[in-house]
Amino acid sequence: MAQVHFRLETQLSPGSVMGALTDFGPRRSQIWPNIDDQHFKVHSEGPGWAEVTEGSSVAGGVWEREKYTWNAATGSVAVETIDSNTWGPGSRWDYKLTPTAKGGTQVDVTVARHGKGWKGRLIELGLMVVGAGMLRAQMEEALARSGA
Q1: Terminal CA-to-CA distance of the chain, rounded, Å?
Q2: What is the pLDDT of residues 108-128, one digit of tens each?
Q3: How far, in Å, CA of 24 to CA of 133, rounded?
Q4: Cα dihedral angle (69, 129, 8, 61), rounded to 10 degrees?
Q5: How many other C-beta atoms are found inside a 10 Å radius of the C-beta of residue 38?
């Protein structure tokens, strides 16, 4: 299992970061560099949760159906993998948003990945080597693109 943790700070408010993480509108694939239109679908959503499929054409296509749950009051977002062609049970993302003294946000991210099949295991190995830096860079890019 690959477990990756990283932290970043942004000038965006916790509400703006929460908005970028939980906006499942048509701009999502334009904001998040690891999601493309072909692999993005909202199955259902309600207050504080959404079930979506996200992924990209990288490595011949990587996708996962996920259940997002969030709580703005606690600054937490949890993303659990329901099904995937690459990630097995127990795979997830956890975000903790903490306001900074300057009005921005400290974002703590923990990612757990259980590779499924040869492709998942290879990507899992890559995550163990370069995961934190790559995932941090993708999130920084997404927050910059969000326009929040």
Answers
A1: 34
A2: 999 999 999 999 999 899 888
A3: 25
A4: -50
A5: 12
pTM of the predicted model, to two decimals? 0.94
Parent domain of 39: 2-145
CATH number, residue 105? 3.30.530.20
Tally of domains in the chain:
1
Task: Quick: pLDDT tens for 22-49.
Answer: 999 999 999 998 899 999 999 999 999 9
Joined together, the tokens standing for residue 37 give 């239109």
Q: Which residue has the tokens 């995961």?
A: 131
One-letter amino acid identity for 131? G
Q: Facing residues of 77 across strands?
A: 70, 95
